[in-house]
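So, can you check this record?

>
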Amino acid sequence: MARSATIDKFRKVFFEDFNEMDLSAQEAEQLRRIRAVYTLQLDNPMVSSKEIVSMLGSQFGIKSIPQAYRDIAQTNALLGSVPNSAKQWTRYMVTETLKGVITRADFIIENSLDDDVIIRAMDSKTKAADKLAKYARLDQADPDPVPYEDIVGMKTEFTTDPAVMGIEMDDPQSFVEKVKKQYVEFEEVEK
């Protein structure tokens, strides 16, 4: 079965029970591997391809590294590239970490009696807030929305003149007639 046909077949049954699927034994095993890759990538978006290959080798006995990479590619083709979502996950983690630093600094400021500790907590809170503001690009103006209603399409003018494409001919009409005779089957219709 062609790869695209297999992927289309898997897409239809990906979340179904194996007992309800009409798959060959080879296809069922391949779908199990793809499900395992997808689950691993969802559990740990920062997982490397090398770690996925290792998992496929240990859990499914895949000895062929190219086969393991084909399984990863088929997972990405079937369900979208999970590694691309790792960037979103990293953004989330950075934001949450900075918010956690600010929250902890607030707690220390409210509950500490030592002035040095309070000053250090205020300093770390300020630095975290500054990083968060820069990360969220709060120091930049919001871009102006694109005025889609002002966009005007190009006027298009169709022609059979080959000179438009830079092809110089003595008699373009005879060339057009020659091409019509060679490639186009038609009957003359009387008006």
The chain has a mean pLDDT of 82. The helical segments are 3-13, 25-43, 49-60, 65-79, 82-111, 115-135, 172-183. The chain is about 65% helix and 0% strand.
